[in-house]
């Protein structure tokens, strides 16, 4: 009598593999979401830093700051909204938001009024 030996995985072994993959996915998905949030915040911070450079260049040329992104030849990152609520000959303030997060970043320079969440001059702050 010949005994044929079947090879393959049992149902229990396959179930254990599926459970392990599910646990790994449950750990990885929240970390991925957190990484996306940090990328959005990084884009907003980068735009504010680049805006600061553009404003200083504009000030060097015209001896005043501007609230016009067109005058600065400045285009924010995709999905980032950048506003300059105040720009005078002695200071400016700006704020960024991103369409995919509730985080806001702000900065102000000189005598411009502070824009929340910024609390210290020239200190880029996000909240």
> What oligomeric state is this?
single chain
Q: Compute the number of strand runs.
A: 4
Helix content: 40-55%
Helices, by number, come to 2
Major sheet size, sense and barrel closure: 4 strands, antiparallel
How many structural domains in the coordinates? 1
Strand order of the largest sheet: 1-2-3-4
β-strand amount: 15-25%
CA-to-CA gap between the ends? 76 Å
The secondary structure category is alpha+beta
* Run of helices and strands: HHEEEE
Shape: rod-shaped
Radius of gyration, CA atoms, in whole angstroms:
26 Å
The chain-level mean pLDDT equals 93
- Unreliable stretches (pLDDT < 50, length at least 5) are none
Can you characterise this structure?
The N and C termini lie far apart (76 Å). The chain has 2 helices and 4 strands. 19% of the residues are buried. The protein has helices spanning 11-62, 69-72; strands at residues 80-87, 91-98, 104-110, 125-126. It is of the alpha+beta class and 127 residues long. The chain has one domain (11-126).
């Amino acid at each position: 009598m010949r005994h044929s030996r079947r090879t393959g995985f049992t149902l229990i072994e396959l179930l254990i593999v599926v459970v392990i993959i599910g646990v790994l996915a449950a750990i990885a998905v929240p970390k991925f979401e957190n990484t996306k949030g940090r990328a959005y915040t990084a884009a907003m911070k980068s735009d504010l830093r680049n805006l600061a450079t553009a404003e200083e260049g504009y000030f060097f040329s015209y001896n005043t700051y501007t609230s016009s992104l067109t005058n600065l030849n400045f285009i924010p990152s995709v999905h980032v909204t950048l506003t300059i609520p105040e720009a005078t000959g002695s200071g400016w303030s700006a704020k960024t938001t991103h369409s995919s997060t509730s985080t806001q970043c702000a900065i102000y320079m000189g005598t411009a009024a502070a824009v929340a969440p910024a609390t210290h001059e020239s200190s880029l702050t996000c909240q």
